[in-house]
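To fix ideas, we reproduce below a protein record of this kind.
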Amino acid sequence: HVQLVESGGGSVQVGGSLRLSCVLSGYTGGGNCAGWFRQTPGKEREGLALIYTGGGSSYYADSVRGRFTVSQDRNKNTIYLAMSRMMPEDTAMYYCALTTRSQYCSSSYLNAPRVYNYWGQGTQVTVS
């Protein structure tokens, strides 16, 4: 069955960089949409970036465009989120997610976590 496992979270100073990884297993690859989301206590889950696993098209939230980059390594079945120029407001639990319905891979669905079938357990990022 499909599993997503995030890693790479931790503490970073303001202005620093961090790269999160999400290893995907148990799925057929290509033609899906993978996304990165984050959440802080009491707030809704926020969509940050999406990538179409079949072709690499990507989409970003305004809050992270230019600072965060989503990418994939198909050979490793891994999705990455490279974060730079980090700010205290980037502190959150970060999740990767996968939907097998590629039609949702667009900026219109950046803040639609409900369309994602599979989720990782999350990795904490703290910026101070």
User: Anything to note?
Assistant: The longest strand covers residues 18-25. Residues 40 and 92 are 5 Å apart (CA to CA).
